[in-house]
Amino acid sequence: MVNIIVQLSKYVMILLIIMYTFLCFSIFGYQDPDRKRYLLRRQNILMFLMHAIAFAVMYLQTNDIKMLAFYLMQVVLFGATIILYTLLYPKVSRLVVNNMCMLLAIGFIILTRLDFDKAMKQCEIAVAAIGITLLVPFIIHKLKFFHKLTWVYAGVGLALLSVVAVLGARSYGAKLSFSFGGISIQPSEFIKILFVFFVASMFYESTEFAQVVKTTIVAALHVVILVLSK
């Protein structure tokens, strides 16, 4: 019976993801705010339903009560994230927030199935990261000097990529991280944020052709280092 439920759940989850994706695009076809809010709420329902089905199946396969506790923890995390973003930043793109939670949910499902302990650790990191992201827009709004650090963002990003290229440890043929003081550091996610800040700062100054060329050159340098470091 469990095997039948597992097989059926796969098709149901695929259908839910297709419906969720369709709503991502269909939202842009409506100008009415009430209609958009309705579609966004439907997205949330689809996400929570897919998430619940996945963890119900994993619980049936393991009979581990920790699975249910972990599931409830994630439901609280997603619910709090959606509510806090909506309350703190009324002009926030709810579609972006929904997609962030959806991708987190899929990630948790995959990782929990592979390694429960690692999934728990990842959830703790996600809680801390979401807490930081809730503060970042407020900090940027209050501190006006961030757009002046254009070349600092580029320099730090390129420096970190170079360190990985030279000192990085190989993992399945790729250099992704380096060790410092016995701690393994993978700076790629941090570099992505720095690069976004760099581009935003460049285009804050100007969007003329020369500025676009400079930005493209720096972007190309990032890519070249990534290619060299595999």
Topology overview:
Elements lengths: L1 H25 L6 H30 L2 H24 L5 H21 L1 H27 L7 H18 L1 E3 L2 E7 L2 E3 L2 H18 L3 H20 L2
How would you sum up the global shape?
A: globular
Q: What's the gyration radius in Å?
A: 21 Å
Largest sheet: 3 strands, antiparallel
Strand order of the largest sheet: 1-2-3
Helix percent band: over 70%
* Uncertain regions spanning at least 5 consecutive residues: none
The overall average pLDDT, rounded, is: 88
Task: Please tag this protein with its features.
mainly alpha; single chain; 6% strand; 80% helix; 3-stranded antiparallel beta sheet; 230 residues
Description of the molecule:
The chain is mainly alpha-helical. Helices cover 80% and strands 6% of the residues. It has a three-stranded antiparallel β-sheet, covered by helices on one side. α2 (33-62) packs parallel to α4 and α4 packs antiparallel against α5. It is globular. The termini are far apart.
Question: Could you give a quick summary of the protein structure above?
Answer:
With 230 residues, the chain is mostly helical. The protein has helices at 2-26, 33-62, 65-88, 94-114, 116-142, 150-167, 188-205, 209-228, and strands spanning 169-171, 174-180, 183-185.
